[in-house]
Specification:
Chain D: Its EC number is 1.5.3.24. The complex is a heterotetramer. Chain B is α+β, with helices and mostly antiparallel strands. In chain B, 22% of the residues lie in helices and 27% in strands. In chain B, the strands form 13 sheets. In chain B, strands 8, 9, 12, 13, 14, 15 and 28 form a 7-stranded mixed beta sheet that branches. Chain B is elongated, with a radius of gyration of 38 Å. Chain B starts with 11 loop residues before the first strand and ends in an 18-residue tail after the last strand. By secondary structure, chain C is of the alpha+beta class. In chain C, β5 and β6 form a beta hairpin. The chains are: A alpha+beta, B alpha+beta, C alpha+beta, D alpha/beta. Chains B and C meet through β8, β40 and β43 of B and β7 and α4 of C. β32 of chain B pairs antiparallel with β16 of chain D.
Amino acid sequence: MLLIHCPHCQETLPEAEFTYAGQAHIVRPADPMSQTDEQWEEFLFIRQNAKGAHYERWRHLHGCGRFFNAVRDTVSDRFLTTYVSGAPRPDLSSLMEGKA
Amino acid sequence: MSYRIPERGRVDRSQPIRFTFDGREVTGFRGDTVASALLAEGNHLMGRSFKYHRPRGPVAAGSEEPNALIGTRRGKGQFEPNTRATMQELRHGLQTTSQNKYPSLKFDVGAVNDAAYMLFSAGFYYKTFMWPKNFWHKVYEPFIRAAAGLGVSPTEEDPDIYASRNMHCDVLIVGAGPAGLAAARQAAGKGLKVVLVDEHAEAGGTLLSEPQAVIDGAPAWDWLAATLADLKAAGVKIMTRTTAIGYYHENLIGMVERLTDHLDEVPADTPRERMWRVRAKQVVLAQGALEKPLVFHGNDRPGVMLAGSAQTFLNRFGVLVGKRPVVMTSHDSAWYAAFDLAGAGAQVQAIVDTRGEVRDDLLAQAKALNIPVKLGHTATATSGRLRVSSLRVNKVTGATVGAGEEIKCDAVLMSGGWTPSLHLFSHTKGKLAWDDDLTTFLPSDTPEDCVIAGAGRGLWGVEAALRDGAAQAQAALEALGQTEAAQGYSVTEDRPGTGVTHKELPTDRSPGKAKAFVDYQNDVTAKDLRLAVREGMRSIEHVKRYTTNGMATDQGKMSNINGLNIAADALGKKQPQVGLTTFRPPYTPTTFGAFAGYHRGSHFEVTRKTQIDAWAEENGAVYEPVGQWRRARYFPKAGEDMDTAVTRECAATRASVGIFDASTLGKIEVVGPDAAEFVNRMYTNPFLKLGVGKCRYGLLCGDDGFIRDDGVIGRIAEDRFHVTTTTGGAARVLNMMEDYLQTEWPDLDVWLTSVTEQWSTIALNGPNAAKLLQPFVPDLELTEETFPHMSCAEVNVAGTPARLWRVSFTGEIGFEVNVPAPLGRQLWETLWQAGQQYDICAYGTETMHVLRAEKGYIIVGQDTDGTVTPFDAGMGWAVGKKKADFVGMRGMARPDLVASGRRQLVGLLTEDGSKLEEGAQIVLDPNQPIPMKMVGFVTSSYDQGTVGRPIALALIEGGQDRMGETVHVPMPHRTIAAKVVSAVFVDPENSRLKIGAAA
Amino acid sequence: MNALTSFPQGQEPETLVSTAAVTVTQVPHRARLSLRARGDLAPLDRALGFALPRGIGGVTLGTACLGPDEWIILTDDAAAVMTACAEVSLPHSLVDVSGREITFEIEGPRASELLTLGCPRDIDAIPDGTARRTVFDGVTVTLWRDTAERFRIDVWNSFAPHVAHLLASGARELAAEMA
Amino acid sequence: MTRFNAFALLKNALTGHKGWTEQWPDSQPKKEYDVIIVGAGGHGLGAAYYLAKQHGITNVAVIDKGWLGGGNTGRNTTIIRSNYLYDESARLFDHAVDLWENLSQELNYNVMYSRRGVLMLAHNVHDVQSFTRHIHANRLNGVDNRWLTPQECKDYCPPLNISANARYPVMGGALQERAGTARHDAVAWGYARGAAERGVDIIQNCAVTAIRRNPDGSVAGVETAKGFIKAKKVAVSAAGHTSTVMQTADVRLPLESYPLQALVSEPVKPIFPCVVMSNAVHAYISQSDKGELVIGSGTDQYTSYSQRGGLPLIEHTVAAITEVFPIFNRMRMLRKWGGIVDVTPDRSAIISKTPVQGLYVNCGWGTGGFKATPGAAHTFAWTVAKDEPHPINAPFTMERFRTGRLIDEAAAAAVAH
């Protein structure tokens, strides 16, 4: 069971309080009807599936209820950081440095 | 009990305990294991091996034991197979049985396999049993299955209870031997939460087998007692009979505590086993090392055992495993076993060492004890049918194995050296490093916050373990901000030692015919490993899987390193190039019940019930599970089956009034200035202009354009909507809405609150619904003018503030009364009483399904299946044409979703008046061969109801354009013709929805 | 908006299990309001007559902060709260959830340990006088720690029997352990 | 290469088994191949076998970063069945079952295909409706699958608890009698031996780091730990690692990789005669020929390549099994392990050409890849050899995610693979 730091509660808590919500920073286009079929396929289905640092979303379902973002190493399952939705994508190289 | 040595061991001689083994009564003492008690009788034969059914006795004294597996039983339903006799403590009334034998342990017909052992080489079953083809299923496989399998499964329900708990601590120490005890002492008294666990019945580890050691001036057992007392006084939680089974992410350790298997009587409310999920800031692994067997022909005969284990049986249990033992070793440690046994009165026949030279002090002590010594010798055979009677040893000169010499004996104590217990460390994905000097893997880096101490990282001797335990614990404590020097220890009478490692021992026999066992339980021999390599198995994983080496219930504790050394030799490679197989949790086999914990029977999983559920139960409801809920399916009267009851409920509702518990529907309160905008974006229908006090049916799609859910949405105020969802969809829909709200549209000022359980929802349907309800709603006139269909209001109902909806899922005049949940049953009973004058009928989900189907209303998940768009469902009217966007709008425009020929929802009426089966497939040409071209299927189908004939809903390709056509439903024995009709079977004009019109 | 708070008040507490380890009691309902808002909360503070706790876990006068924009208000006069807040111009959501949950009080020397049966988080690390949502045996609950040995948990109605059943079994198990 | 049969076994037994030769050589890469297959699992090795045997293409290398059969082939619960709802799936999986039935003889390697029946339990009305739909569709597709009442389920699988009071009562089941299990390692080994015998190079412990393309965009070969290897065609069959490999050729796939766990009990004498799947409680169970209860669980919730998996999921799975089969409560878990499964949005596989000329992919099997092994390998080899879809794999394209023509077994049936 992973340990996850909720950026809203400011507590590091067991995974059982959280639900996974897929890749982060996929923005729903403001005008979906302007999108081509390829673009809509990309939005719906195409995912990074990164092996290593993965930008992803979690929800503190059994806690504050908020969706938030995280960077997790999918090889070790360790979180590099978590941050609130809407915050900019953290710089990967500095995150990796800190953990190396 | 002639093998019991007075004054030795820690068993309580004042407490004799009787148990049975294969029906025979045996007496041991409190503190004994089944193995020690049987050995005390001079009985080594305890089991039969997996493949060859060879007679076997214990080779070890702990949880790594591969041979002495027994069935254990307390009472009805309290049987378990494959229990290690070396771990099962005695208790009064314990019944034990040997396994894998027929008809008896001493004479087993399965042992013919042993005679034909040359046939059963590694991988033999991949090479044969292929002809004739159907013989595999009918003959070969049943035969193989019956021969394998060791013990028998339990066949009765387990009456015991199990438990689980979470724990957080600062330092968890696994293993309460000298390293673990020193680690605990180092961590104790600093205000930290320290937990020390050990799988055995008492703490002490090696110290229990080495009473001679003197630690800081105190005899080992005195030191142990004092240390345990000190640790307890300092608040250290000491947990014995507790096995750390797995090391999971972020320092989560799974541990199983065995609470009652050693007790004569099980106390009330006490679980048999408890799973602990321990989250430790720092972990100290002090699990020690495992002794390796030597690999030689006949190394599996009862009486051949690890020297260290013989020492344990003597010092901990007071049992001599043989009166005339011979020691066969490549490591100093077994010399001490010889000395200990000699000291207890055994006539040690010889100490045979593979090494040409050993330490002078060992030779001197052997001489002093009159023990013959043979250096530079190998073992080439043993004899004895059910118990070893002699060991054959040969002088080795260079590569030449000399003539054999028989040494008569009643036990062979062997030692091939020691290997660290790396299992939990490996679970962390920690890296291992090969140590050439020790010929073993040692722990290296791990991503987890853990240290490994003592013999677990290749250190031998009590003093080394104590010092390392303190030092490693201190290293861990530093991460917790504790700076202090590691405590020092000095030990006299310590027994450090060294040795050499062998592959299989040199022999003068044809190696192809030697039965030199590596994995005892699975009967894997050195020649099997070499054959696997010869056949191209180069990875240790291939060797393991091809031979099954290391896959027995000891999980390779006895066999992995020996297997690796032999495979590496066969491959001509260094061990690290061949690799070690991965250690998998659990560390030792762990009861399913311990994993299940409380989650059995009534604790298994929540069953949600509404406030009205109890009334339904009192009134004879038959239930169905729907998601986590149980819902009343129908209310049979005496003698009624489901169909009869449902027909009656349908008729009563259409004739007068029915009452239905709709409380399980999901309910979400959407509040804020942007509430209308939010609902409008989520649902396909337009909501911006919905008036306050009005409701509207809504369809919810995913962004792929397929229907996800539906419900009715009422506008309570300008900034407040009350949204309902399906019963099963409630949590999912709320999560989806929160996702869009928080992630895509955080600028909207609107909030969502689940009110599913705030309200009890009672539905009244039927021509008399308004009449029944009106007296309880004095503040609102229930007429077509003042409260038309699809209205909602906050009013008092029967004196209770309520949300009243005029909606219908039946085609009849309908109301849904929402009252605060705990008042639901009270209102239900009020309406029930008042409804008697109208012959009110309580109906369940089945009648609800029929009534809605007659009206052509869909059930999401039944008439849709995740591949259906609103247009497919015939609900294009629910899609807002003028909206710029809503969830699913773009998805619906994808090429395949707008293509012609999609499956569309229609009604079906069979031509012969029979009822179709839900799920039945529809074809256009009934005479085509298989595979047939299917154009759709029946989604809903009901008998009778109120239409007077069976009706069905179906999804059919191009269905809307097939009205009036005949399609065919091929059933196993006949084909049913059906006509495609409108999905609305009742009152297409909606006249029955009007108050005053139908009544 | 009407205040749906005429809820049956004043029932007696009902003891579910009482052992030497811990006593579990179902306590009478109180009116309960879910408040959501963000931004400058001063207008709400003024309307309520006290400052809403700002950090998740904080409790002020029976009001707990459960999320960055979420509070649960326990009150004896829900109508008054709703009336007061109705005048607040700051966008917010106030929803009556009085009927949604059942409250169990868990008190005794091993109250904290009883919670470890279902809560994976570190109970001992929860300060007295705080509240938060968490999970108990898969069920979302609001957990209030009143004192070192007294907790309350709010559980949705339909999950309450399941939770109560496990609490009762656990209380007996803990007592047997002490025996 | 020695033919395997009882006489050869007997002959070798008498001579100390010295006569057996290696089943496949340890090949080193050549400079160039007609086809390179990335991933030496059952699917990759099988494709190599069929390329050689049926299409005469023998200048083939199968390259794996580890040892052959070490991925999901050697980590799954070995369930084989074909009672899928949609015509496309039913055809593909039933084609596989046809091949399974003769695979031991075809490969001269006993893969122990055990036709013991797969019983899927219905625990609520929705399950009943869904399974009935499957049964009717299967019948018209020529796939065996029939309905059993609760008592018939119990008769077929005596350890089953059919008490009406169970939390998930058994309301019946769908039985495919032709379905069963096979010995997973033997499948990889048998295909490897058969392919090697026909000239295929099997290159283990050699990670493919990138797919290289020619200036015209077509595939050029692969970069590996042992250097660049030229190839006319590259076929990727790398399960959980497929998307990582394909991204190096700028092909992005709708895949996510999740941890999946499975476990076995200690071995016991025969007690469990068939395979039972219970989707409502997320658990599958059968008993191996060795006597171990083999139990599969669901995936963890997050994507991962760690092959580690969490404790709670295992607790849930075991609880579910003991709820449905209460007599197993005192059995013990011997070991559990994790795999990485690649999952598509519609839970159906992709066996397809790609936008890159000469690059092919077989992926997205989720938890259901083992059962498809011969069928997928056979049709994938066809696609690679002929550069066109096989009629059976034609619907399993990459394009369906753009058009919306999904093969959504999961959505349609709420039944996991």
